[in-house]
Amino acid sequence: MAKIVLISGSLRRDSVNTAAVATARRLLEQDSHETGTLTVGELPFYHFDVEEADSSAAVREARALVASADAVVISTPSYNGEAPGVLKNALDWLSRPYGRSALSGKTVALLSASPGPRGGADAQPALREVLRRSGAALVEHEPVAIGNAVELRGQDGEFTDPEVLAVLQSLLKATVVAVAAQA
Ligand code: FNR
Fold first, then answer.
1. Which of 74, 76, 79, 159 for mutating ligand 1's site (highest number of atoms within 8 Å of CB)?
2. Pocket lined around ligand 1, Cβ cut-off 6 Å
3. 157 has a pLDDT exceeding 90
4. Per DSSP, which regions of the chain are E strands?
5. What pLDDT digit, counting tens, does each position of 62-97 carry?
């Protein structure tokens, strides 16, 4: 079984991306995988002096959490065609110190969600490039972008729509297969 860390790129209480990672967590735990959560809003703004002094416990914990995982699953909103700064900030922290990225060689699956019809897909290319430069091994899968996500979300804050569940299952299966291939 794999250990998989889930990251939502949104801080919003009713976030559809947080709903997507909550759904992914449930699907993974149903299959007996271990999960963890990295809350990007708990990290300070990236600051070289803080990095050099290793003075942020939140950053140390985030790095250790990701380092301990077999894979990471990220769900991002699109803010003007890119991932929110708070998610980019977290990935910048994980990529440091130079040469010791916690994402180096890490299996990473990416998806996006939005209330609009395109599901925030336009945020994915730039985020893939950030992940690639951070050393991540991106899961090969057709882009997963959950459109009209507010309508598709169930009352309990998770997705119950069969098509959404099928595409999430497919991405998670590809993630677990990629982890197994690396072992
Ligand atoms: C947005 N939103 C948005 N949506 C989209 O599909 N394309 C876009 O370019 C943008 N741009 C954008 C910029 C900024 C600054 C904000 C705050 C929002 C809307 C966005 O998709 C919506 O707020 C989602 O609900 C955000 O995801 P969460 O928070 O529900 O996960």
1. 79
2. 10, 12, 15-17, 77-81, 114-116, 118, 120
3. no
4. 3-8, 34-39, 71-76, 107-113, 137-138, 144-146
5. 999 999 999 999 999 999 999 999 999 999 999 999
